[in-house]
Amino acid sequence: MEAQNLLSGFFPNYKIPLTRTSKKPFSCSLPSNPSFHSLLQSHNCVSFKTHYSPCFKGSLKKIFFCVNASENAVLEEKDYKRPQVVKRKKLAVFVSGGGSNFKSIHDACFEGLVHGDIVVLVTNKPDCGGAEYAKNKEIPVVLFPRTKDATDGLSPSDLVAALRSLEVDFILLAGYLKLIPAELIRAYPRSILNIHPSLLPAFGGKGYYGMKVHKAVIASGARYSGPTIHFVDEHYDTGRILAQRVVPVLANDTAEELAARVLHEEHQLYVEVTAALCEERLIWREDGVPLIQNRGNPNEYS
């Protein structure tokens, strides 16, 4: 089955145009501080390091302010390499339930906090809250996997073909309860993330999902819990950890109370990680550990 046929009936996708910067000459005014003008009179030029948005990449050289003490300041570019814009990423989100993390990421994309767009929702439960939300927002919904009860679901190879046809860059699991097939992992290496409601590797693996995780945390006597975002491999919750957020476990917590506090952190953490992913701020250490570059300081990592 061809990928285009698989996507028949979907709402048309749209692209958000990137706003190009103006090509007008750059101008600036100099401060009126007397000491600054004294400095200019004693030097032919003053150089300043450039700064650029995290949505751009490419090596920038120096911009020189060439100053004549008797004339107005003139900006002159020398050895300037124009940066390339990081393309807006296309995201696929997988859900099995209400999809609150999916909604948080979608809102962040719409508000411009994430340099990407959700182009398809994949679910094993077509009537779940996440699927209904996607339909209301005109986001295509794909049923996966194919089962006896869901004969219109896609096979693993069909799913890969459908995602490829939509030019999906990254896959985000947000409460999707099915094991990801090897075909999809091979097709999207280091490009599939999952969020889990405990501090992995504790309280993870098959059978640890939803409220079961929080009940197990409280029963263990653990003093801390919190969400973990990790890369997906062929097993439950064993992929490389990318980010975590710590939440205290209070003495008289119920599973519902703990779940609510962890979920609040999930919404923030997943948006932050998705933003870093779309801005290409993820790097891999030599030992295979993924790190996130700080947006303000590329030499700092989390």
UniProtKB/TrEMBL annotation:
Pathway: Purine metabolism; IMP biosynthesis via de novo pathway; N(2)-formyl-N(1)-(5-phospho-D-ribosyl)glycinamide from N(1)-(5-phospho-D-ribosyl)glycinamide (10-formyl THF route): step 1/1. It is found in: Plastid, Chloroplast. CDD domains: FMT_core_GART (cd08645). It holds the Pfam family Formyl_trans_N. Its main location: plastid. GO terms for molecular function: phosphoribosylglycinamide formyltransferase activity. InterPro entries: Formyl_transf_N (IPR002376), Formyl_transf_N_sf (IPR036477), GART (IPR004607), GART_AS (IPR001555). Signal peptide: none annotated. It catalyses: N(1)-(5-phospho-beta-D-ribosyl)glycinamide + (6R)-10-formyltetrahydrofolate = N(2)-formyl-N(1)-(5-phospho-beta-D-ribosyl)glycinamide + (6S)-5,6,7,8-tetrahydrofolate + H(+). Its EC number is 2.1.2.2. Residues 89-274 form the Formyl transferase N-terminal domain. GO terms for cellular component: chloroplast; cytoplasm. Keywords: Chloroplast, Plastid, Purine biosynthesis, Transferase, Transit peptide. GO terms for biological process: 'de novo' IMP biosynthetic process. The keyword Repeat does not apply. NCBIfam families: PurN. Belongs to the GART family. This is Phosphoribosylglycinamide formyltransferase, chloroplastic. The lineage of its organism: Eukaryota, Viridiplantae, Streptophyta, Embryophyta, Tracheophyta.
